Amino acid sequence: MANLYTTTISLPRELAQRARKLSQAESRTMSELFREAFRFYEESRRFRPASLRTGAARWAGLRRSLKRVSAVGARRNLAAWVARDRRAH
């Protein structure tokens, strides 16, 4: 690989430990492991129907809004959001 770009990522401790363990078990570098994971992720998105990509964006918006409310309010908001989403589709 002649033209490399180096970057830093943050992982939860448990995920980092699992990734390190997997890379050692397969005698691969962490870079190789993450390059393959990214390629796999990118390929899987290419063949995902547009409706699922849109749905993922809606769910991401929901997750952001749920972070801003209390646990009880979140359950009520989730139920209302699901009901509105079902009526819209």
Textual characterization of the structure:
With 89 residues, the chain is mostly helical. The chain folds into 2 domains: 13-46; 50-88. The protein is built from 4 helices and no strands. The longest helix is centred in the last third of the chain and has 18 residues, at 71-88. It is elongated and about 50 Å long. 0% of the residues are buried. The mean pLDDT is 77.
- Mean of residue pLDDT values: 77
Q: How many beta-strand segments?
A: 0
Mind summarizing the main beta sheet? none
How many individual domains?
A: 2
Number of helices: 4
- Low-confidence blocks of residues: none
Radius of gyration: 19 Å
Secondary-structure element order, as H and E? HHHH
State the secondary-structure class.
mainly alpha
Proportion of residues in helical segments: over 70%
Tertiary shape = elongated
For the termini, the CA-CA separation is: 46 Å
Question: What is the strand and helix layout of this fold?
Answer:
Blueprint: H1 13-25, H2 30-46, H3 50-66, H4 71-88
Characterize this entry briefly:
The protein has 89 residues and is mainly α. It has helices spanning 13-25, 30-46, 50-66, 71-88. It contains four helices and no strands.
